[in-house]
Amino acid sequence: MEQEEISHRFDAVETKLAFLEDFLGRLQEQVLERNSVSDRLVSEQAAVKEKLLQVAAELEEIPNRKPPHY
C-alpha cells in the first residue's frame, strides 16, 4: 500500500471514531435523562399509591360512622 492510501484509510477510521464518540456521548445523555424521568415516575407512583390507600382506608371507615344528626 502506498502512503497516501494508508493516510486516507487512517483519516476514515479517525472520522468514524469521532462519530462514534459523539454518538456515545449523546446516548449517555439520553440514558441519564431517561433514568431521571424513571426515578421521578417511580416516586410519583409511590405517592399516588399511598394516597389511594389512604382514601380507601377512609372509605372503609364511613359505614362505621354515625350520621351527623345523631
Strand content: under 5%
User: How many helical stretches?
Assistant: 1
The rough form would be described as rod-shaped
Helix content: over 70%
Distance between the termini: 102 Å
Total beta-strand segments: 0
The poorly predicted ranges are none
Summarize the main sheet. none
The chain-level structural class is: mainly alpha
* H-E string: H
Number of domains: 1
Integer average pLDDT: 91
Gyration radius over CA: 30 Å
Summarize the structure.
84% of the residues lie in helices and 0% in strands. It has 1 helix and no strands.
Topology readout:
Layout lengths: L2 H59 L9
Question: Could you explain the architecture of this structure?
Answer:
With 70 residues, the protein is mostly helical. The longest helix has 59 residues. It is rod-shaped, with a radius of gyration of 30 Å. The protein starts with a helix and ends in a 9-residue tail after the last helix.
What key attributes describe this structure?
0% strand; 70 residues; mainly alpha; 1 helix
